[in-house]
Design goal:
mainly alpha; two-stranded antiparallel ribbon; 3 helices
Length: 174
C-alpha cells in the first residue's frame, strides 16, 4: 500500500488499518486522523497472562532495593578510609612470609630428591634457603643428612609462617 507524501509513494509494511504503527498523520488518506496505537498507555498484562512465549524479564532496576553493602569490622562502612595502610602492610608481611617458607620448602624438596647442585636454579634456591635459615643452621645434629636438612630448614619455614601470618592477622584487626 502507498501513501501520498508530497507526491512520493511509500511502502508501509503494516498496511493502513487501525492496528498499523503508521496509522494517522497529515499525509494519511483519512485526512490526519491520529488515533492512538493499540495498548498505548495500557497496563502491562498480569503475571502468567502474557501472550509472549518468553519468560518475564528482570525486575525494574530503577525501583529495586539497593544492593547490600558488605559489613566491615571498621565500623564506619566508609570504604577504604580507615585501616587501608594496615591492611596493605599485613598483606605485604603475609606474602613475604609465604615466599620465605616457599623457598625453604623448595630447598628441602630439591635436596631430598637429590637435585643437581651444579644447576643454576638449584644453586639459587640453596643460596636463598641458606640466607633465610642462616640463624637456625645446625640446631639439629643428626646422622641422617636428609633428616638434618628437613629439620634445619623446616623449622625456620614454620616459624616464618607462624610469625608472618600472626603479625598479618594482628595488623588486620587494627
Amino acid at each position: 500500500m502507498s501513501y501520498l507524501n508530497d507526491g512520493t509513494p511509500q511502502n508501509r509494511p503494516y498496511g493502513s488499518g487501525a492496528n498499523s504503527p503508521y496509522y494517522g498523520g497529515s499525509h494519511s488518506p483519512n485526512g490526519g486522523d491520529t488515533a492512538p496505537l493499540p495498548n498505548v498507555g495500557a497496563h502491562p498484562p498480569a503475571p502468567g497472562n502474557s501472550s509472549s512465549p518468553y519468560p518475564p524479564g528482570p525486575a525494574d532496576p530503577y525501583h529495586a532495593a539497593p544492593p547490600p553493602t558488605p559489613h566491615t569490622s571498621r565500623g564506619s562502612g566508609r570504604g577504604n578510609q580507615k585501616g587501608a595502610g594496615a591492611d596493605r602492610l599485613a598483606l605485604i608481611i603475609h606474602s613475604l612470609a609465604d615466599i620465605a617458607a616457599g623457598f625453604l620448602g623448595l630447598w628441602i624438596l630439591l635436596y631430598l630428591l637429590e637435585a643437581n647442585h651444579a644447576n643454576v636454579f638449584v644453586d639459587f634456591v640453596h643460596g636463598m634457603a641458606d640466607w633465610l635459615a642462616g640463624w637456625s643452621q645446625d640446631i639439629f645434629m643428626m646422622e641422617t643428612e636428609g633428616l638434618r636438612v628437613f629439620f634445619n630448614y623446616g623449622l625456620p619455614a614454620l616459624i616464618y609462617l607462624a610469625v608472618g601470618h600472626g603479625a598479618a592477622a594482628w595488623l588486620r584487626r587494627l
